[in-house]
Amino acid sequence: MSRATKHNQAIPVHAKFQYFLLMCFYCCRLEHVVRTYTKTWLEGQPPDADMSQLTTRFQEQDELFAKMHERFVEGHAHVKASLEAYLCEH
Q1: What letter would DSSP give residue 2?
Q2: Which of 11, 19, 23, 32 is in the most buried spot, having the most CB atoms within 10 Å?
Q3: Coil/strand/helix, residue 66
Q4: Alpha-carbon distance 26 to 1, whole Å?
């Protein structure tokens, strides 16, 4: 796992905590996830498409948006349950 820094230093994470950290990152940085996805999606579109066409194409991805929302809900639930379990133990 790595973090975005000036030097892109890697941070070792025990496998036991990897899913938790990924879900925590996803929930906390949802804006970053959506922005990155949108940028990647736009780069794959025809260069001559106008804003109206791009908006229509982007909005037609209902299944993808539903899946992204499901991952967010699952991630949020996992992070919340993990933190509650940790806080109850300590």
Answers
A1: B
A2: 23
A3: helix
A4: 13
Q: Please list the residues that pair with 67 across neighbouring strands.
A: none
Amino acid at 25: F
Q: How big is the chain, counted in residues? A: 90
61 or 2: which leads in pLDDT: 61
> Rounded to the nearest 5 degrees, what angle is found at the Cα of 73, between the Cα atoms of 8 and 24?
25
User: Is 77:84 a contact under the CB 8 Å cutoff?
Assistant: no
Residues 76 and 88 sit within 8 Å (Cβ to Cβ): no
Distance, in Å, from the CA atom of 44 to the CA atom of 30, rounded to the nearest integer, reads 21
pLDDT at position 1: 47
Cα–Cα distance measured from residue 32 to residue 20, given in angstroms and rounded to the nearest whole number = 18
- The share of the chain scoring above pLDDT 90, in percent, equals 21
Cβ count near 49 (within 10 Å):
13
